[in-house]
Write the structure tokens for this entry.
Amino acid sequence: SSNNLRTNNFLRHVESMRLHPSGAGHIPYLNAIILGESLATEEDDFVLPSEDFASQANVQSPEQYLKLYKRSIEDPDGFWSEIASQFYWKQRWGDKVCDENFDIRNGNIKIEWFKGGITNICYNCLDRNVEAGLGDKVAIYWEGNEPSLDATLTYSQLLDQVCQLANYLKDIGVKKGDAVIIYLPMLMELPIAMLACARIGAVHSVVFAGFSAEALTQRIIDCKPKVVITCNAVKRGPKAIHLKDIVDTAIHDSAQNGGISIDKCLVYENPSAMKKEDTKWKEGRDIWWQDVTPQYPTTCPVEWVDAEDPLFLLYTSGSTGKPKGVLHTTGGYMVYTATTFKYAFDYKPSDIYWCTADCGWITGHSYVTYGPMLNGASVVVFEGAPSYPDSGRCWDIVDKYKVTIFYTAPTLVRSLMRDGDAFVTRYSRKSLRVLGSVGEPINPSAWRWFYNVVGDSRCPISDTWWQTETGGFMITPLPGAWPQKPGSATFPFFGVQPVIVDEKGIEIEGECNGYLCIKKSWPGAFRTLYGDHERYETTYFKPFAGYYFSGDGCSRDKDGYHWLTGRVDDVINVSGHRIGTAEVESALVSHPQCAEAAVVGVEHEVKGQGIYAFVTVVDGVPYSEQLRKDLILTVRKLIGAFAAPDKIHWAPGLPKTRSGKIMRRILRKIASRQLDELGDTSTLADPSVVNQLIELADS
Ligand code: 6R9
């Protein structure tokens, strides 16, 4: 077929670049070979962008990609400074674009981009676009939980509102470098609050509004914010959740347990969810957003900051109990999110873009707020749930706003797939041209359904691999350039050098499987873990000296395509949410009747992974349905509903080595009922626990 011919031509092209001395030969993993005749395996399953799509794309072919990529690696300073020059800098950076020590053997890890450059990301998102004539362009299309509720903000209106809030924050004493916690659902006020902080140089820390009071308390104690911004309540589907009550508890507990006093809590009244009068109130501390912000001017001078001044903190799960405060700075993050957004989604000024992620996660930071707005894009912000009022809601929204780029997570794709094609096909979806996926590997069957049913076999899918730590896309298709393979994140973004290493940290070439690391920094990289640079180095730079270690497994096929295989540490990925097994375990053992707990991830049809908890109860406590419920409730209370275990498995004992280390490998096999694959259990201190566990598997 003509597609096979085009695929062959493409691969032949890559091959000739590889062999040619001035070609891609020095890029070891672009080891594409000429495609054979058989298309039998997943690896050989190519999906090409249509010629129409490719010919209008920002990057139209592998040659174009390779040329840009090669430049980004060979001349990173030239490559990134040209891009950075498209933004407004009050003062240009010093002589070095990048200054890094990426190798722990040479001393402390340090990453700096555009150091000495003076800028402001809010200015670049808003003022710069307004000055360029985009003032009347819609910045945000807001869609409420109820289909009848919506609103829009143009770029100039958004700028006005951001300035009013920024002026208020300044007035109550928030200064450059101060932390501000934002605990808001997907209202327009969430990006407004982020941008207002950025405008005055304050460091925002958005806490996903699905986190519990305890989780919020922990974050307040860690970053000691000057103010907490929230709203009284939010509707999720038919249910109202009283966010302000959660904040009240957290502020109280932060004072009690951490000695942190929060003098100001700014509360947005969300009238569709809860009336003002019904909101519990603490006079003197609590202030209504709507009462104060209109009193302030709609212009606010920008706080000019160094490219390396902190922009935000975002807490994420690691393999030990305490969440990590991932710190991003201003200049490199700005340049990187804007550029990745533009290329990975083939962004054009006429696009209407919708990312379903919440701003409480990194995806909402980089690809709801900053990346799109730096490009002057029109962004859909959706408050509600994709299944409300029914499973057709996403496509209703796509048709309503004529969404052209739709970016979501595999878990949502799988759950909509399960609900049936009819919810999709009753909508036109004609406006769509690019689809995106993030959060976990997308399995080829979900990829196919997304591509064929949602995108009518017309829209390339950008399967973007990246992390809270990386700030922006790392491995991603450029939709017009590459033939895709369903389930593969394809090739690195400009400036990114992924390597796959073995246990000893030795780079493996060609077709292989191992640990995914990155060689050299990229502008969007995080700079530290807040208040714990040592943990930063230990977690990310010590496991494989000389590299950044992602925590993910990855294989590379014969054509050089990357296939992410999931976390290799004790982190579980539930519906794209990172959850540390240790966090869930410590929540479980806080229950007085739980003596010990061990948590593993198991395959889950919709969520990708489910949480499976082995629980040893305190001597003499009987197993009961009530205890099971209480344990699950404890996790919901301490972390949030999204971290609730799917299964509690009673464990009279846990399989431990003689040195007391829990053998999770065995627990994973028991959890997934692969009982004939338990492997060697002879090193266990007490091998009989394995049989006890198997007996209790379905009780
Ligand atoms: C952006 C985000 C990061 C972890 C990451 C990996 C998984 C994300 C993926 C993917 C395969 C993709 N992950 N995108 N795995 N393919 N396209 O999700 O950040 O919440 O920090 O999670 O998510 O395991 O290490 P974060």
